[in-house]
Amino acid sequence: MAVLESRWSTRRREKGRRLEQLGITGSSKVVDAWCIDDVLATLIQPGDRVSIEGDNQKQADFLAGALAQADPERLHDLHLLISSVSLPVHLDIFERGVASRLDLAFAGPQSLRLAQLVEDKVVTIGAIHTYVELYARMFVDLPPTVALLCAEGADEDGNLYTGANTEDTPTIAEATAFHDGIVIVQVNKIVDTLPRVDIPGDWVDVVVVSPKPYKLEPLFTRDPGKIGRVEILKAMLAIRGVYERHEIVSLNHGIGLDTAAIELILPTYGEELNLRGRIARNWVLNPHPTLIPAIESGWVESVHCFGGEPGMERYVAARPDVFFTGRDGSLRSNRVLAQLAGQYAIDMFIGSSLQIDGDGNSSTVTAGRLAGFGGAPNMGHDPHGRRHGSAAWLDLASGEGANRRGRKLVVQLVETFKAGGTPTFVDRLDAVDVGEQAGMPLPPVMIYGDDVSHVVTEEGVAYLYKADSIEERREAIAAVAGATPIGLRHDPQVTERLRRDGVVALPEDLGVDVRRADRSLLAAKSVGDLQAWSGGLYDPPARFRNF
């Protein structure tokens, strides 16, 4: 019997061996920051699979920095799982020879450097995942041997308080702890009593107080002062041509000035159209400051968040009817649950992309830039597992009898040309060549064209779900692609037919007066205005205090 038990508990025995070697025997789990190098060198072994908490916003930066300083003679060939490769130190770990393989979901801030390291064969990419996909694999074929996480605070028993930025921490901790991995957490402070327990101490093995608070990025803050006429025109077209037409009640907005413009004209343009209460009530969204005027105007019923947003803490705590908060007043965000809500519970995902081809395929992976795509593929597709109906979902229904089902709206909201005159619509996605060069089995496409139901540009709206053939879909995309290589091939006579058939709508078809697309429609024209709308509860980060 003892032989059999030993055969089935190798991971548990190895974890116990490492902790015993460190001297962690069940007393206080707190170690001193000055000895973190020895802690990591003892608890992590060559070839281990290590998950470093690198979320969209918060970063286990102290632990990542310590790992980057490890002796590559002693610690090497690590396989890192990092959802968002956001810090230079994440890639320093590879350049110093400590790690060699990477599975990720997003690498926006480090995308250029990552692409070069892949080309130089310093980094081997396992896969570019969606957020949910990467975390799901931690419960299947990629369970972490060690997890490096971060939290607001802990007590002596290792119970954790994550506060407004819970994000991915509980998911990674569970995947690691319950498969006999080692969970190491950097915290901002040790306290006697936590405001609430977000992760129980028996999931945690080691706690270290970081010399400074973990890095937290205001990723979802957009300055209304940077929103111009083109963004406002696209917002007007989206509201009239999509939100109003399909009665969009539940939704997710991608990051950017385009969707921020929509949020800021709901209390003005949307009010003119008498749409309050009819659209945009239930959101899956980080606490965007640009949503404050809509909340204060009574447009928003609920917001469930992927993460937090620096400066929004007091405002969120003061609006518990809208946000999901604990009794302590702080936000309880959860990236995985929010991604699932965004996949199955909302009527529409609307976001942008760097490139779109003539079939509607899109990607944020471009030449020399391995950005990844985060959660967009989770929310930017029609999940065939959905079974509940809504007006918007049923409005796109197709099929007969038992084959009849609704469809989620997946909207690409883009400008035909990006800054510098680079076309958004291209004949061939750079992602195809990048994928081939990196040895990927498939091109890193963000959203496949057959999942896209609408394309909105400053030229108009293409209702791709109405197209009766692949060729007609291509014609509809070309009709709103402007003077790009795709758009220049459109046939004006074909476009007129598509307008008559309702497959394409130009501003005049939607009753949108292009002359009205100016900043007077914005409910807030500066970050200072957002703070005023909040009654002083919003505390903008220093970089946005330009008022």
Strand content: 15-25%
Q: What value does the average pLDDT take? A: 95
Give the distance, in angstroms, between the N- and C-terminal Cα atoms.
72 Å
Structurally, how many domains make up the residues? 2
Number of strands: 22
As for the CATH topology of the largest domain, it is Glutaconate Coenzyme A-transferase
InterPro entries: MadA, NagB/RpiA_transferase-like
GO molecular function: transferase activity
Protein name: Malonate decarboxylase subunit alpha
Pfam families: Mal_decarbox_Al
Topology:
Blueprint: H1 2-7, H2 10-22, E1 30-31, H3 36-43, E2 49-52, E3 58-59, H4 61-68, E4 78-84, H5 88-95, E5 99-106, H6 111-119, E6 124-128, H7 131-138, E7 146-154, E8 160-161, H8 169-177, E9 182-190, E10 206-209, E11 215-216, H9 229-246, E12 250-253, H10 257-272, E13 282-284, H11 292-296, E14 302-304, H12 313-317, H13 335-344, E15 348-351, E16 355-357, E17 362-363, H14 376-379, H15 391-395, E18 409-413, E19 425-426, H16 430-437, E20 454-457, E21 460-463, H17 470-479, H18 492-501, E22 504-505, H19 527-533
Helix pairs in contact: 2-3, 4-5, 9-10
